[in-house]
Specification:
284 residues; alpha+beta; Butyryl-CoA Dehydrogenase, subunit A, domain 2; 2 domains; four-stranded antiparallel sheet; 6 helices; binds flavin-adenine dinucleotide
Length: 284
């Protein structure tokens, strides 16, 4: 939204075409929820920025062609001293230190990356210097709406697969699904999924109209994370021992969807934002 046409052509077009893999470099070992506290610096020297520091938890960091990097470009106040920079990942001084071994999302690599005097042209700056924090907060709204949208199908699928499995699996001479505790619970979960969908659609409609949807996007993300945990946990239980194996989708979603309450801002960060909009967050 804020980058030059040249940057869009160089980085966005090939990424959308599927020729480049992009990654987002915000979180650091010492600053995840507290984004304002990142320590990576990009110091302007002539026509270049010299980057030093490191990033943590970077999705696709092991294979990315470029990173959208958030770094401190001045010593000013933390919300006005940051900038977003398009950083090609093949530059000297970029070290992908490790691929992190994770509970879930195992088909997606997650990297820790260090920068040592990495030189990048100053024209790779996105928008205005010092506006990076604001741009990033805007991006988070879209990421959080997307995060919720991306789980809807998984939740529907896991409920349907659980109906199918418990409908044919028998215990005490009747399908497990015929126990009211099971079919009522699945009905409740399906209802919750529809509520999530409605809140998401409402937030997206407001966003498309050009409104600030920070509060709604945070509510949607919070609900998506919590509901994903509830649905996968309840469904897994109805699969019995099979649910605890690696052979079924429910166990994978139980692990993978656990990330939603953490990545892109934890549930507690969402609650803090909602409280801020409700006027109930105590000022420091
Ligand atoms: C698989 C995976 C992929 C990721 N991909 C990326 C990526 O591509 N790019 C990127 O930049 N980052 C990425 N992240 C990082 C993610 O955004 C952070 O993990 C997340 O923001 C939380 O930061 P943290 O892990 O440092 O937790 P911390 O900030 O250490 O917080 C730990 C916990 O403390 C609690 N907490 C924090 N603040 C508060 C508060 N105000 N009130 C109450 N409780 C609180 C929460 O429960 C939180 O989960 C990824 C993370 C994972 C696990």
């Amino acid at each position: 939204r804020f980058g030059s046409d040249e940057l869009k052509k160089q980085f966005l077009t090939p990424t959308i075409a599927g020729d480049f893999v992009a990654c987002l470099g915000i979180s650091e070992a010492g600053a995840g929820s507290d984004v304002a506290n990142i320590k990576t610096t990009a110091v302007r020297k002539g026509d270049e920025y010299i980057i030093n520091g490191g990033k943590m938890w970077i999705t696709s960091g092991c294979q990315a062609d470029w990173m959208c990097l958030l770094a401190n470009t001045s010593e000013g106040p933390p919300h006005r001293n940051k900038s977003l920079i398009c950083l090609p990942m093949n530059l000297p001084g970029i070290h992908v230190a490790k691929k992190i071994d994770k509970l879930g999302m195992r088909s997606s690599d997650t990297a820790q990356i260090f920068f040592e005097d990495v030189k990048v042209p100053s024209r790779n700056l996105i928008g205005e210097e010092g506006k990076g924090f604001t741009y990033q907060m805007l991006q988070f709204q879209e990421e959080r709406l997307w995060g919720a949208a991306s789980v809807l199908t998984s939740l529907e699928t896991v409920i349907q697969e659980t109906i199918d499995y418990t409908g044919q699996r028998k215990a005490f001479e009747q399908p497990i699904l015929h126990n009211q505790a099971v079919h009522f619970r699945l009905a409740e979960l399906a209802t919750e999924v529809e509520l999530l969908r409605s809140l998401l659609y409402r937030a997206v409609a407001l966003y498309v109209e050009g409104n600030d949807v920070t509060k709604f996007a945070s509510m949607v993300k919070l609900k998506a994370g919590r509901l994903a945990r509830e649905v996968t946990d309840s469904c897994l239980q109805f699969w019995g021992g099979m649910g605890f194996t690696s052979e079924v989708l429910v166990s994978r979603l139980y692990r993978d969807l656990r990330l939603i309450s953490i990545g892109g801002g934890s549930d507690e960060t969402m609650l803090s934002i909602i409280c801020k909009y409700m006027g109930t967050l105590p000022s420091k």
